[in-house]
Each structure stands twice: as structure tokens, then as C-alpha cells.
Amino acid sequence: MNGLSRISAFGLALLISTLAVAENTTPSAQTAGENGRGFFSRLFGSDDDDKPAERAATSLPAPVESKAPAASQAASPPASQPSKTSAPERTEPEAKAIPPVAKASTPTPLASSAEDPYQILKRADESRGNLQGIAWNVAIEANEKGRTDSMLYDIKARGFNISGLNIAPPKSKGQKLLMLDNNMWFHKPGLSKPIPISLRQKLMGQASYGDVASTNYAEDYDATRLPDETVDGVECYVFDLKARNSKTTYDRIVYWVDKKRMVGVKADYYTLSGKRFKSANMQYGSTVTINGEARPFISEIAIYEELMSGDVTTLSMTKPKLAPLPDFIFNINLFMK
Predict the structure, then answer these.
(1) Which listed site, 35, 47, 57, 285, has its alpha carbon 20 to 30 Å from 208?
(2) pTM score, whole prediction
């Protein structure tokens, strides 16, 4: 026991001596802390020296949270992480100002919607028979080379379709016309079936078969507005009309429409080559009620030969009557009966 006590007393004295030497060296606080930790680590076997990464993490300030958008973070993956696809990361396109539309790409608007060529022509067509149901008489008188011929038709029209029955003279009585969607047929007693004819075929004098039909200029022609003109003291819109297909009565028409009454008052007719071959003046001495509004209705068309020979063909429209028309009137299978 005395031997063990002496050994313990000697070890304690050695420890105190070592600590006294350490106090006399006065190192900096950081160095002292590191040396102290190293001393006690060596003395007592601490595992702090085996965890340099953990000590470094505790000595650094806390990381600041990034405010970058998630899309930016996703666009920069760690270098060690392999890309799953070869396609580039999708990013929202940068907003750009929309360039103004070039003036040449859109038609120049008219002063108001009331001056839209389509609407003007549609309204003018209504005064020439393009309605849901109307009947009238058309008397044709042709004066050519000093000779006068006449013919009378009973016309019924519904929209673009017409049915005509010749009621005079006796030699032509009973002849029929039927037009469906710009296709026309002729029939007379004794024929086994109707004969297809063109709207451009001559009916009498300067009048074509299509002249006795209601007009549909708004749908059948492309309209280009020309400078306004005055006709017999009347302010008029002027349109250059070009046919959209070969089934129309005329290839090209220059058409004057009364601004106030919205009716066609004059027309020049041209061939495809641009040659004017006849002209016409229109009168509106009749009245019909359309949608509760009293409207002028065509009463006369005077067609003149371009050679100014004095030959004229007059179509007189009388007794207009608005009324619903049954389907059988426009049925080609019943046309011959």
C-alpha cells in the first residue's frame, strides 16, 4: 500500500507540474483551445480529431437560403449527377412586344359598317327579287332594227331560285323556266324532259335568261369599291363586280347603287377581255314591305346595246306580291307538270 501511495503521489505531482508549465506559456485563446483539446485528446483518447468535417461544419455560419427560382435551380444540376435526357431544360419564353400588323395585309375599312360593299349589295338585291317569297309579272319588249317583239312571264322567286311561266304570246305560252342555285332549265309542251340552259343565253333582244331572275350580286361577285359618282343628280356608290364562277349572267359589272334608297340604278356589262357590250338603267316604281319597312322594288330595266344603234330591250316588272311559296314550285321533278 505504501508503495502504491507513493506512485500515485508521484503521478499527481507530475500532472500538476505539467499544467504549471502550460500556464506560463500564454498562447492565444484559439491556440490554447486547440492545444488543450489536443492534449486532453491524447491524454484521454477523445475522437474529436477523427471528425474534422464535423468541426468544420460547426465553425461555419449557417447557409443563406437561395431565393433563385426553382426553374433556375433545376437548370443547374450537380456535375456528378448524370442527365436523364439529352433534351435541353424547358424555360418560359421571354415576353416580346407584338409587332403591328402591316397595313397592306388588311383591307382598308370603310367609313362605317353601313358602307360595307356586301351589305350594300345584299340590300340592293332585295329590291330586285332576292327575298324569301315574291311573285311578279315580267313583260319583255325588244325593239331591234325597227321591229318590236314582246313576251310576258309570271315569275316566282324564293331566295336564289326562280320559277317562270310564259303566259304570252300564244306561240310561247306554256314555256317554263326553272333556276336552282344558278343552274337553269327550259321546258315547253311536247318535250320529254327539261333542257339545261345558261343564264347567259339570249332570251329576247338584249335580254338574257338571267335578266328575268332575281339578282344575287352580294354572293355571286367579288366587289371592289370605286370612287363615288352622281347619276342623274343621285349620289351613288360605285362597285366593280367580278364573277366568282362561270354560272353568273355576266362576267363583270360596274354597278351604281343609290346611296339614299340603296338600290341599283345603273350597270355596265363587260366581257372577260374587258370590252363593254351593253348597259342598263333601272327604275323602282313599285313598293314592297320588308321586315315592316316599305322598300322600293324594281319596276323597269332598260338594256341598251353598246353600239348605240338605238336598239333597246325593256323589262317591265309589275304586280309584285310578297307571299310564302311552297316547295313544289321549285321541284325539278314536278317541273314538267
Answers:
(1) 285
(2) 0.66
